[in-house]
Amino acid sequence: MQKILIVEDEKAISGVLHSILSDELPEYQFEIAEDGLEGFKFIEKEDFALVISDIKMPKISGTELLKQTLAIKPETTFIMISGHADIDTAVGCLREGAYDFISKPIDINRLITSVKNALDKGNLQKANTNLKQENSQLKKKVNKKYQMIGQSPALKKIQEIIDKVAVSDARVLVTGPNGAGKELVAHAIHSQSERSRGPMIEVNCAAIPSELIESELFGHVKGSFTGAIKDKSGKFEQATGGTIFLDEIGDMSLVAQAKVLRALQESKVSPVGSDKEIKVDVRVIAATNKNLAKEIEQGKFREDLYHRLSVIEISVPSLNDRAEDIPLLVEHFTNSIASENGSAAKKFDDKAIKSLQQYDWTGNIRELRNVVERLIILGADPVTADDVASFVKK
């Protein structure tokens, strides 16, 4: 049961307030404090849906009680009452955070109305706080799925950038070698952003034939080309309200690059075979394993598109450059593989870990996971350096 605290040094007044309000609000429990200090001790011990406080009291005034309470419990709702009130006092209390100010002698009808409104406001604030906490927990769950494993300085720097950029809508270009975790960075940015409840649409630009990339990105209308048997929405339209991840954008044709540039400039797309323009609201994250500066020099990538995409650039290091993260990665993969297979996780002894740290990881994180799975299947328990030598191709 929620509680209301009455802080009043005149027992006759506190008794009347308790009697009237308990009749009006039987669903609430009431506590009475005889001065500000006693009131603050109540507040330190438990939360109150509402505090009704006199201003002029011994030990701690109502104004001080208001300030001290909001310093430790800022969501507490206060109604202040006083028989020594003036405009400045009332305004001062409201500025300090009180919900309302009522002069003595108290107008009972006005008090009841103010109390009910204050309780409604407090309950709404509590509901909003709970919702924010739920959203925060949801984001944490999503973030855990795309958690970047490791404690290396390089990885910490990337996470710091992700934390800063995720809250904005800035476009991000993620660079790095194959298998290093570029997709992981993109998902982490999306999951920590305000767009996390919207879709995350992924497009592998290298896997789509150049003649189909425009249709894939922007959609098409029926009959616009052979095989277009019905209208189809494109990835940009599907990502509205969320994020589109253009993976391996360095492999996109110059024609498609021009179309993407226009979409970024105008936030509009035109389906293939249509003059209709569709408004899109998307955040764009792109990734590539290529050196786009060299691609631009060779005329294979548009410089204007590069500058549109790389508002923030995040470079993901190779696994060889963060070998200190391998022990944590091996532990993570071992546990996740065991969970997937419903089996107990194997251990890797120290020499096995050291051998893995000395390996040349051309395939980066992706290759490491495959190797860990192979060693779990074929190696001893615990996995030894001899297992690594036997089952890992150099």
From TrEMBL:
It comes from the Bacteria. SUPFAM superfamilies: CheY-like (SSF52172), P-loop containing nucleoside triphosphate hydrolases (SSF52540). The keyword Hydrolase does not apply. InterPro entries: AAA+_ATPase, AAA_lid_NorR, CheY-like_superfamily, P-loop_NTPase, Sig_transdc_resp-reg_receiver, Sigma_54_int. The modification 4-aspartylphosphate is found at D54. Residues 121-148 form a coiled coil. Residues 148-377 form the Sigma-54 factor interaction domain. Keywords: ATP-binding, Coiled coil, Nucleotide-binding, Phosphoprotein. One of its GO terms (biological process) is phosphorelay signal transduction system. One of its GO terms (molecular function) is ATP binding. Residues 3-119 form the Response regulatory domain. CDD domains: AAA. PANTHER family: TRANSCRIPTIONAL REGULATOR (NTRC FAMILY), TRANSCRIPTIONAL REGULATORY PROTEIN. This is Fis family transcriptional regulator. It comes from Epilithonimonas lactis.
